[in-house]
Amino acid sequence: MFLRITRNNTSHLSTLGDFGISSQSDAAVNLNEITYKKGTEIYGEKEPAEYVYQVKKGAVRTYKLLSDGRRQIGAFHLVGDIFGLVDASTHRFTAEAIVKTTLRLIKRRTLDTVADTDTVVTRELLSMAMLNLKHVEDHMLLLGRKDSVERVAAFLVEMDEREASQVMALPMTRRDIADYLGLSLETVSRALSRMRHAGLLNFVGSTQREIVILDRMRLRAVDFK
Amino acid sequence: MFLRITRNNTSHLSTLGDFGISSQSDAAVNLNEITYKKGTEIYGEKEPAEYVYQVKKGAVRTYKLLSDGRRQIGAFHLVGDIFGLVDASTHRFTAEAIVKTTLRLIKRRTLDTVADTDTVVTRELLSMAMLNLKHVEDHMLLLGRKDSVERVAAFLVEMDEREASQVMALPMTRRDIADYLGLSLETVSRALSRMRHAGLLNFVGSTQREIVILDRMRLRAVDFK
DNA sequence: CGTTTAATTGAAAATGCTCAACTCGGGTGG
DNA sequence: CCACCCGAGTTGAGCATTTTCAATTAAACG
């Protein structure tokens, strides 16, 4: 199957998911799909970057490790997100499937070849890198200067913004959230408990991973403090 | 004066300073220079991004603020560095001169116009965005998962790598370093004292901003722990 | 020079972490 | 089918690291 990455008509894009992939082909990019089981590695840090990925189903975490096992998750990639995009030939994060996940694969080299002749594709890559950059820059402020409740609130707001339905069904564990926010899992749990008791949110269903935001106003107020 | 941004012959670049600016002109970019006094704002967060800047002399800090004054410095820009590069029309950081600083200005719109017709320039912008991204990604790990001594060690190694001479003359205050590392200025001071007493470094001259690394091996060992 | 800003150091307080106990659900296998 | 086990989550208590507050010293700058 041959598809072409198309340009959005707005000059910059609101989410990675906005990148359309259609079949009006002149600059052809070979496509593939793979499904990964829960917990399996998609690629490792420092491995050669052969592909760029788009999440079709499931969720992915990308992270860095210190030698003693401390982990920093850089981002969660949900349905529609494109990740694994690097300029160099080597990945700077490890990527793992959080749950059973289906990915669309795009050969990096093919993309490069297309970009060589097609300015539009190069600009697209630039846009995506910039969007990526914005997320990481905001996350830096969170990690450097926000307290635990502010971090968890920011996380919930971020996830809530990507969720169409009322009930957020988070695919990641408390440990994942903790490693994303630079906290311990216990601190994340305590912050969620405090927010629940304060009437900001509630757990529904049998798991504690299905969350309903009860007071978006106050949650955002905590986030943007 | 009309200059052209030229491509490096390596596929990706080790520092922003590696971007040569020469006068072999076919895609012309208008250039200008401005000098800023110590402490003055170059641009503010959310202001329209009219220019891209290159440090000719001095040093710049770029940061984000929370409403109650907490500050996160995203990067220090030293001589040769290019900053202020955004895809959108709006800056995402505030930029300030740390000391008396001379900047080279490049009109953003001119650059965009050139990039529209010149793939090489677009790829250059992409390379710079990716390099930027790498720095911020590494800094995320530091802010999320490293302790105070590891952070200060990483800062010193980073500065040391950009300094040709034996003596590092840091332009920034302890507060700046603290806001870069997500610490209090007292914690930075204590970490430096501990490293000095451990024989890793020493202060020279009358100020405490001139630092000599005595044991690069051990300093790096702390950084890469 | 004198005043202001920067840096260091100590002591007390706060925030978040570690360790530990306990609960709850969802498999798994006897 | 049910008991058990395991992973995930919550909660408490004590501990560690970092922050805050404060005092002092040193340096920079008009």
Secondary structure: elements and pairs:
Two copies of one chain form a homodimer.
Chain A lengths: L1 E4 L15 E2 L6 E8 L4 E3 L7 E7 L2 E6 L5 E7 L4 E2 L10 E4 L3 E7 H10 L1 H27 L2 H15 L4 E3 L4 H8 L3 H13 L3 E3 L6 E4 L2 H8 L2
Antiparallel strand pairs in A: 1-2, 1-3, 3-10, 4-9, 5-8, 5-10, 6-7, 6-9, 11-13, 12-13
The first copy, chain A, binds a DNA duplex (30 and 30 nucleotides) through helix 5.
Oligomer designation? homodimer
Strand order of the largest sheet of chain A: 2-1-3-10-5-8
CATH class identity of the largest domain in chain A = Mainly Beta
Per the CATH scheme, the topology name of the largest domain in chain A is Jelly Rolls
User: Which class of secondary structure composition applies to the elements of chain A?
Assistant: alpha+beta
Number of strands of chain A: 13
- Radius of gyration over C-alpha positions of chain A, nearest whole angstrom: 18 Å
CATH architectural grouping of the largest domain in chain A: Sandwich
Number of domains of chain A: 2
Largest interface: A-B, 44 and 44 residues
List the helices and strands of chain A in order: EEEEEEEEEEHHHEHHEEH
Q: Quote the beta fraction of chain A.
A: 25-35%
